[in-house]
């Protein structure tokens, strides 16, 4: 057994049923504790485009949400959905959609906690995330942090640091170079150099530049992709009704579809649907709070509501539209999987979009290019935050250089092993974050009643924001 097979086996184990049950259970629990915060989606959408004047923070709440959404809308929003349909059947689409709805409560809870326990560094910049929640929530009166809280904080930050190089950089650049080579015949190293070079210029501009780019890029690429998919659905209009029936039937009954090429039992549909939905919106993984904690907001509830719209846009809208395009196209061409020699989610996505003359392939190419590029930009900030926490500010430039190098290597074909290894780290990163969410859910539910349900959403939080030492977390002295 070679090392690649070993990594694949570990990957399958850590992202097996126990992890799916844990994440889905967290979604249900936080939904209960927040009294179904999903019903406040209209308010959340309104707040996402409303400036919170006078609030402390480094970036607008919309900028934070756009950057977080840009980081989430990676290749999983297209290829991941195709993988769910291919492996779990059409029924996986329904479970993916429901996971996105339930995941809004988890995203709300983790961002609320990050906002409540955020800290300020020596330059006055806001920082937050699971590592700071563990430290600030359980800090003793004398300023020291219990070893177990420090351990959980470091665990999350180390796993996040490892994950970012692969999922945020290498894999995304690989997707862009593959699409460019297949459609234009451009050499991968040329595309990788352009992507990484331009990305570095944006990243070096700091959070302000990153958020400004994402504020403009996310709405444009989201609307363009949805309009393109809408055109495909119009072309497949005769099969829309059949697609919905197939999605609901396969979600609750075992049956084959598309000439028997795709079929699965209820459990498999549930597993793949939940897994793809969880991967697409990242609710529970702990990445979004790293940027959301920097937002301008009077109280934690405001930004938590804004961040809650992420799973809605990503999974409930983008991923569901993609899934409907795939299922309706397969209904229109039942033998497409056999005829095109489909072997994985990527080849299925290519085959499906290619069935629409002239516009299908460009829509797919535009979606992957924009989604992957925005992920590279957004995840760079995540890495900067955890690097600053673990090693101090002097290590940040070194991290940025390594991040860009990993992106280039991924673009020229060194991304497969990185994907599997960082996928494992992704699961290990989620564990301390989920535990933090479960421990904070009661507090969040209680304060949500005051801010959201009792109508005090504009009340200012009058709590001290602690200053973060500049030294590495490993070198900090006791207070």
Low-confidence stretches: none
How many strands appear in the DSSP assignment?
Answer: 4
Structural class: mainly alpha
Q: List the strand order in the largest sheet.
A: 1-2
Categorize the overall geometry: globular
In the CATH hierarchy, what is the architecture at level 2? Answer: Up-down Bundle
Query: Into how many domains do the coordinates divide?
Result: 1
CATH topology, what is it called?
A: Amino acid/polyamine transporter I
Largest sheet: 2 strands, antiparallel
Q: Would you list the SSEs in sequence order as H and E?
A: HHHHHHEEHHHHHEEHHHHHHHH
Tally of helical runs:
19
Please identify the top-level CATH class: Mainly Alpha
How far the N terminus sits from the C terminus, by CA atoms, comes to 50 Å
Name the helicity range: over 70%
* Binned strand content: under 5%
State Rg: 22 Å
Mean pLDDT reading: 82
Keywords:
globular; Amino acid/polyamine transporter I; mainly alpha; symport; 479 residues; two-stranded antiparallel sheet; Na/Ala_symport
Task: Describe what is shown at a glance.
By secondary structure, the chain is mainly α. It has helices spanning 3-14, 17-33, 41-48, 61-72, 79-88, 92-116, 130-137, 147-184, 188-204, 206-235, 240-252, 266-281, 288-292, 300-332, 336-339, 345-354, 360-391, 396-411, 416-453; strands spanning 119-120, 126-127, 255-257, 262-264.
Topology:
Elements lengths: L2 H12 L2 H17 L7 H8 L12 H12 L6 H10 L3 H25 L2 E2 L5 E2 L2 H8 L9 H38 L3 H17 L1 H30 L4 H13 L2 E3 L4 E3 L1 H16 L6 H5 L7 H33 L3 H4 L5 H10 L5 H32 L4 H16 L4 H38 L26
Antiparallel strand pairs: 1-2, 3-4
Helix pairs in contact: 1-19, 2-6, 2-12, 2-19, 3-14, 4-10, 4-14, 4-17, 5-12, 5-16, 6-11, 6-12, 6-14, 6-19, 7-8, 8-9, 8-17, 8-18, 8-19, 9-17, 9-18, 10-14, 10-17, 11-14, 14-16, 16-17, 17-18
């Amino acid at each position: 057994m070679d090392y690649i097979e070993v990594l694949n086996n570990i990957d399958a184990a850590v992202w097996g049923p126990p992890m799916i049950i844990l994440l889905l259970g967290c979604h249900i629990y936080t939904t209960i504790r927040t009294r179904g915060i999903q019903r406040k989606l209209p308010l959340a959408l309104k707040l996402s485009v409303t400036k919170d004047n006078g609030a402390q923070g480094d970036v607008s709440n919309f900028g934070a949400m756009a950057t977080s959404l840009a980081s989430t809308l990676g290749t999983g929003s297209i290829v991941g959905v195709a993988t769910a349909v291919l492996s779990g059947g059409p029924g996986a689409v329904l479970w993916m959609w429901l996971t996105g709805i339930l995941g809004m409560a988890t995203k709300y809870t983790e961002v609320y906690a990050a906002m409540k326990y955020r800290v300020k560094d020596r330059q006055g910049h806001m920082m937050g995330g699971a590592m700071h929640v563990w430290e600030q929530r359980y800090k003793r009166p004398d300023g020291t942090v219990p070893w177990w809280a420090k351990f959980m904080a470091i665990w999350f930050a180390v796993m996040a640091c490892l994950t970012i190089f692969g999922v945020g950089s290498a894999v995304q650049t690989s997707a862009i170079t593959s699409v460019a080579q297949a459609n234009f015949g451009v050499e991968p190293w040329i595309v990788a150099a352009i992507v990484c070079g331009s990305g570095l210029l944006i990243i070096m501009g700091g959070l302000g530049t990153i958020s400004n780019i994402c504020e403009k890029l996310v709405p444009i690429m989201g609307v363009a992709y949805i309009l393109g998919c809408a055109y495909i659905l119009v072309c497949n209009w005769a099969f829309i009704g059949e697609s919905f029936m197939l999605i609901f039937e396969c979600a609750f009954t075992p049956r084959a579809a598309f000439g028997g090429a795709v079929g699965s039992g209820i459990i498999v549909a549930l597993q793949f649907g939940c897994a793809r939905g969880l991967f697409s919106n990242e609710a529970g993984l702990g990445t979004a709070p790293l940027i959301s904690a920097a937002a301008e907001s009077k109280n934690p509830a405001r930004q938590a509501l804004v961040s809650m719209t992420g799973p809605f846009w990503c999974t409930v809208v983008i991923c569901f539209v993609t899934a409907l395009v795939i299922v309706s196209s397969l209904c229109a061409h039942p033998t497409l999987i056999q005829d095109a020699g489909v072997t994985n989610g990527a080849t299925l996505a290519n085959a499906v979009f290619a069935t629409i003359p002239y516009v299908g392939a460009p829509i797919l190419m535009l979606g992957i290019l924009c989604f992957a590029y925005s992920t590279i930009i957004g995840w760079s900030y995540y890495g900067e935050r955890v690097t600053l926490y673990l090693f101090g500010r002097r290590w940040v430039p070194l991290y940025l250089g390594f991040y860009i190098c990993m992106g280039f290597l991924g673009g020229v074909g060194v991304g497969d092993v990185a994907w599997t290894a960082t996928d494992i780290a992704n699961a290990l990163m989620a564990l301390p974050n989920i535990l933090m969410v479960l421990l904070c859910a009661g507090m969040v539910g209680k304060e949500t009643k005051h801010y959201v349900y009792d109508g005090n959403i504009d009340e200012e939080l009058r709590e001290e924001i602690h200053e973060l030492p500049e030294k590495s977390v490993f070198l900090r002295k006791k207070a």
